[in-house]
Amino acid sequence: MIVEPAPAKINLALHVRHRRPDGYHELETLFAFATEGDEITLETADADAFDITGPFAAALTPSSIQEREEATNDNLVTRARNAFRELFGITDKYRITLTKNLPIASGIGGGSADAAATLRALARLSNIPLTDQRLTDIAASLGADIPACLTGRTALGTGRGDDLADLTGLAGTPLLLVNPGVAVSTAAVFAGWDGVDRGALPDGDLLTRARAGRNDLEPPASRLAPVIASVRAQLDAASGAILSRMSGSGATCFALFDTATARDAAAADADAQGWWRLATTLA
Ligand code: C5P
Known about the structure:
Mean pLDDT: 94
Number of helices: 9
Bound molecules: cytidine-5'-monophosphate
Number of domains: 2
Pfam family, one: GHMP_kinases_C
Largest sheet: 6 strands, mixed
InterPro entries: GHMP_kinase_C_dom (IPR013750), GHMP_kinase_C_sf (IPR036554), GHMP_kinase_N_dom (IPR006204), IspE (IPR004424), Ribosomal_Su5_D2-typ_SF (IPR020568), Ribsml_uS5_D2-typ_fold_subgr (IPR014721)
Catalytic activity: 4-CDP-2-C-methyl-D-erythritol + ATP = 4-CDP-2-C-methyl-D-erythritol 2-phosphate + ADP + H(+)
Structural class: alpha+beta
CATH architecture of the largest domain: 2-Layer Sandwich
EC number: 2.7.1.148
CATH class of the largest domain: Alpha Beta
Low-confidence stretches: none
Helix content: 25-40%
Number of strands: 10
């Protein structure tokens, strides 16, 4: 049995440059990963099976946005499996279990990280090197941020976010993720972007670039879910925070801290608000 971590993704910065003819948006984004997240287990079986367990497996309510986005997540795991089998000419059946530790539709990878972990697990089980271009091709065909999740490495993403250039820095930095329990739709947040190009990421080391950057999806996401502004305000005010921002299309916000003690104090403040939070580190 293969146990494959599906680490939470964060966008240290996310600049939207322009809307493309294909409906996607041209991005400049700094991808980084937490040391914790969801988990995929995978083994060969007599018949295909896909089960979801963990704290957010039962978080679905009928007709909610969560359910629709989670259905996409389910689809992404099984679609990754199907695309892998087809491209590599493999006929094996698999039992796949997703342990859902991260809130769904929350801007920290979710289904993308799960799909990427599924591809890595299938590749490992089949002795296919993770550098095989076909894995990247499947990832890009399934979603714009899945290639980044496939490598799990800190990177600058351009294009749809799938042209990747590795970056270094900030590994081991104490990281706090906070989600106020409101799911937002990625497509709806992008659709609310005001169309103003506020400029490129500056040069410099990773922290300098991240701090000088922004998340252009924060205003439209905050219009859809005003509580995001409250989360941001609390993280901004946290003692020892060196950077706080919303990740992806939200609603999860994150902060980097100079010490684990400062991070844990901010985590307790999030607990006091009744918000979900994960006290972790940057990979
Ligand atoms: O590729 P993925 O399915 O993850 O994207 C979800 C939605 O987010 C897209 O349908 C699109 O509306 C929006 N998106 C975008 N530009 C990007 C990435 C995503 O407009 N670069």
